[in-house]
TrEMBL record:
The chain crosses the membrane at residues 20-38, 45-64, 70-88, 95-115, 121-143, 155-178, 220-238, 250-273, 280-304, 310-328, 340-360, 366-388, 400-420, 426-448, 455-473, 485-508, 520-543, 555-573, 639-662, 674-697, 709-732, 744-767. This is Uncharacterized protein. It comes from Zoarces viviparus. Coiled coil: none annotated. The lineage of its organism: Eukaryota, Metazoa, Chordata, Craniata, Vertebrata. Keywords: Membrane, Transmembrane, Transmembrane helix. It comes from the Eukaryota.
Amino acid sequence: MFYEIMFYEVIFYEVMFYEIMFYEVIFCEIIFCEVIFCEIMFCEVIFYEIIFYEVIFYKIIFYEVIFYKIIFYEVIFYEIIFCEIILYEVIFYEIMFYEIIFFEVIFYEIIFYEIIFCEVIFYEIIFCEIIFCEIIFCEVIFFKIIFYEVIFCEIIFYEIMFHEVIFYEVIFCEIIFYEVIFYEVIFYKVIFYEVLFYEIIFYEITLYEIIFYEVIFYEIILYEVILYEIIFYEIMFYKIIFYEVIFYEIIFYEVIFYEIIFCEVIFYMIIFYEVIFYDVIFYEVIFCEIICYEVIFCEIIFYEVIFYEIIFYEVIFYKIIFYEVIFYKIIFYEVIFYEIIFYEIIFCEIILYEVIFYGIMFYEIIFFEVIFYEIIFCEVIFYEIIFCEIIFCEIIFCEVIFYKIIFYEVIFCEIIFYEIMFHEVIFYKVIFCEVIFCEIIFYEVIFYEVIFYKVIFYEVIFYEIMFYEIMLYKIIFYEVIFYEIIFYEIIFCEVIFYMIIFYEIIFYDVIFYEVIFYEIIFYEIIFCEIIFYEVILYEVIFYEIMLYEVIFYDIMFYEVIFYEVIFCEIILYEVIFYKVMFYEIIFCEIIFYEVIFYEIFNEVIFYEVIFCETIFYEVILYEVIFYEIIFCEIIFYEVIFYEIIFYEIIFYEVIFYEIMFYEVMFYEVMFYEVIFYEIIFCEVIFCEIIFYDIIFYEVIFYEIIFYEVMFYEVMFYEVIFYEIIFYEVIFYKVIFCEIIFCEIIFYTIIFYEIIFCEIIFYEVIFYETMFY
């Protein structure tokens, strides 16, 4: 026992401790003043059965302490027990660490074996006005440190306060934790209660090449954390709570997250201000059995966030569940994503079963000047994703603004969706209110080898979805390429859209420039029992939409089936197409193979549809083949076209080249109570339309019935057909069988100033045409 020991102006110079053993040592009331440790060597030091019982540190001052060339070599701490340590009313007041230098300190082969901290209580600890000034850790090496079976049991930190703690010019240079193993380390019931860090400033701190390997943080609360050049390897975060966290001017530079697991995370009132992620790498990140329960994002602000060269490599999401997620007042301001790469991302066995999103509110979300630059999705696989019994109830998007979003050089390469199933997905009372997309630009977006395989939508219900005051302003798609996109065995079964309302939707200055769809294949797509009930499009305006150099090349629809698709009570009210321009649209090698439309259209109403200044310029249909198309039991019931106006529509240089209709069958097509009311074609010009090598082969119209079709006040005003050429048009085995026009009424039809100028039928052949 050492009692009331005072060391004053003690100098240790070239001290060597060799084979020292401390047995049952007690330190009580020790004071170190002006201590210098120079060239101290601890060699083969063994601490055996040291017990600290009721240790109290009161008013400890370290002044001008220098550690120079300290070497800990083969130090063993064996069976150290801290039992029933109580730090009660410990006050650290005006503690100053000034000019502390650790130079060439080596910890070599230190072993902590069977250390137990049992029932340690820190009660009412106050750190007030602590200053760390000019502390330098230079060339500190921890080599082969092993913590074996370390147990922290029932440690409680109660009412700890750090007030005005300042770290000034602290440098950690070349600190290496090499082969540090925490084996069977358990933090059990660690509680930080009423911990307050007040006015903590980390100034000019450099954490350089620090590696934490296999560290476990259990029930930790982090407040005001700054990370710089840190590597996290196999970190598990369990039950983490971030409450009123502010990240200000945080820089993540060359940060690597390796095998990170987040479980039960709560974010409340998080603010990210001027956050920069630079050269961040997520390598082999596994999200395994993640449960996010009662996650609240409140007042999250992303201001001047830059993501630069972020790489996600081998990311796996396994069994993720989100329960009661709330986003409130999220603002993205001047966010830049630059050179983000997603490589070999696998979503494996993601099951969302009985997931309920109830009362989700996105309120006042603003995306301002968001830029996505050089984003690459390469070898992304979605495998066996099942959405079962998902309910979206009362989702509200209110005042969502997307302003100046730019997608630049986005590449989707080899994305595969395999066996995705949506089972009993319900969207109930989804409201989009005042959503604005302003100046969204897609530049050089490439989708390469995107495959949707065995995607099933079963019993998906959209109920009471409302889009209110949505504005799309200046959306530009520039050089967008869809290459080798395959939809294989997609099934939409029992999909119901009920009471969908689009109110005051405006598309303004939408431009598709050099959009290419190349080798898109729809294979075995089935739309079964899709019902659109009470769909209302009200005041939809397409203004200045331009499709420029859009190419559809090698698009194949193979075995596409529309079965019992019902459009019931669809109303298009005040839909306006104004200054719509289709320029240089090319449909090349489009194949429709075994397409079946079965029982489509019921009570469709087009009310006040206006096409104003629509221009089709240089539209080319090249090698379009319709093969084995069957329209079976198509019923148009109570279809009303009311006040449709085509104004200043121009078809200029439209070419139909090598169009083939092969084995097209219209079977039991019924038009029942179709009414065209006040249709006006005003100043419609067809100029230089060419039909070249069009072949109708084995086209059969069987049991087509037009019943109670009424054309009321149809007006063609100043319609001009100029230079229309039918060249080598062949009708081969065209059969009209059992066509019935019953009670067709043309009432008040006016053809005014219709001009057919230079119409040429050249080599038109009707071969084996039968009207039966």
